[in-house]
Automatic annotation (TrEMBL):
Keywords: Coiled coil, Cytoplasm, Metal-binding, Zinc, Zinc-finger. One of its GO terms (molecular function) is zinc ion binding. PANTHER family: E3 UBIQUITIN-PROTEIN LIGASE TRIM. Residues 324-343 are annotated as: Disordered. The keyword Disulfide bond does not apply. The lineage of its organism: Eukaryota, Metazoa, Chordata, Craniata, Vertebrata. Residues 217-266 form a coiled coil. Residues 267-325 form the COS domain. It comes from Triplophysa tibetana. Signal peptide: none annotated. Residues 24-72 form the RING-type domain. This is Tripartite motif-containing protein 54. SUPFAM superfamilies: B-box zinc-binding domain (SSF57845), RING/U-box (SSF57850).
Length: 343
């Protein structure tokens, strides 16, 4: 079980263990012919061994001394250098058999690499392919950077392992985006219903106001227009607020959908190295976009227009000063006093 994540770790299959044994400690890929065997019985790709021997690194000493990158055993090479080392034909034959099994599809999935896949090259070491992933720095790199470059003290892993992990994480982020989009769509629907309710309540209050003021038409006609204007103004202000929220939710929804498409295309169309260059950024953007905790909403009762209720019990002398809510508090106090007296 993984102590950090708490998840059960699947035991490697025999073929996966074999693939690990057939991997070069320098490039972390399966041995490339010809395979050379050192006196310490450790194997290397001859190309990797030659690059390590010829390059300026801590293991290249004068006098033809070569140090094994696995156990640090020192080997004295003759004038032929790495090319004078004995080939390990047994390992080469095992690799041939292993690859034949892969082609038949009996064990593992085909390797990630493809002839059509564009391979990224190291910017520091010319001609070196990016073929490993630095877990410490969270970036793809090459074998030479690990052996004697800026990543020599870092922990590394294969591109395939990190690719599978980050692809799974990005898929989970896409699922989170889908759930977030559903939430956004529900909020847009709710805001549209709120806008409709505001308009309906405003229309209802206008109708009630018109019915009451028509009884006092001669005196209240001018005031009627002023009060209607107040209701309309607040209606317009509230509708503007709600429509603005609807637009924000729609924009966030469209941005989220576009991010989902971009993430899906990255998984489908990118090479492994290209995917790993952009995957962390996409994962962070997807997780940030999936959070709905900062969504703004109208305060409770925002759609209510009941405060425009008009009382018609006022005397005619008060008509010139009539306004919304005037006399409403007094009437409520009177009703409360009457209820207390009845009790």
């Amino acid at each position: 079980m993984d102590i950090q994540t708490g998840q059960r770790v699947r035991a490697p299959s025999p073929m996966e263990s074999l693939e690990k044994q057939l991997s070069c400690p320098i490039c972390l890929d399966m041995f490339t012919k010809p395979v050379v065997i050192l006196p310490c019985q450790h194997n290397l790709c001859r190309g990797c061994a030659n690059d390590l021997y010829d390059s300026k690194n801590p293991y290249h000493y004068s006098g033809g001394i070569f140090r094994c990158p696995t156990c640090r055993f020192e080997v004295v090479l003759d004038r032929h250098g790495v090319y004078g080392l004995q080939r390990n034909l047994l390992v080469e034959n095992i690799i041939d058999i292993y690859k034949q099994q892969l082609e038949k599809g009996n064990t593992l999935e085909p390797p990630l690499k493809s002839k059509e896949t564009k391979e990224l090259m190291c910017e520091v070491h010319e001609g070196e392919k990016i073929n490993i992933y630095c877990m410490t720095c969270q970036t793809p790199t090459c074998s030479m950077c690990k052996v004697f470059g800026q990543h020599k003290d870092c922990e590394v892993s294969t591109l395939k392992t990190v690719y599978e992990a980050q692809k799974s994480e990005l898929k989970n982020s896409i699922d989170l985006l889908g759930a977030s989009n559903s939430c956004l769509q529900a909020m847009v629907t709710q805001m549209e219903e709120t806008s409709k309710t505001v308009e309906e309540n405003s229309q209802l209050q206008k109708q009630r106001l018109g019915e009451k003021l028509d009884l006092l038409y001669a005196i209240l006609e001018e005031r009627k227009g002023q009060l209607l204007e107040q209701i309309t103004q607040e209606q317009d202000e509230k509708v503007v607020v709600v429509r603005s929220l609807i637009q924000q939710y729609n924009e966030q929804l469209q941005a989220s959908i576009k991010l989902m498409d971009k993430a899906s295309q990255t998984i489908a169309n990118s090479s492994v190295a290209e995917f790993l260059v952009t995957a962390k950024k996409l994962i962070t953007e997807a997780k940030d976009a999936s959070k709905c905790s900062n969504l703004q909403r109208p305060e409770p009762g925002f759609e209510s227009m009941d405060h425009f209720t008009l009382s018609t019990d006022d005397v005619e002398a008060m008509l010139a000063k009539m306004d919304f809510g005037v006399g409403g508090d007094d009437d409520d106090d009177d009703e409360e006093e009457e209820e207390e007296e009845e009790e």
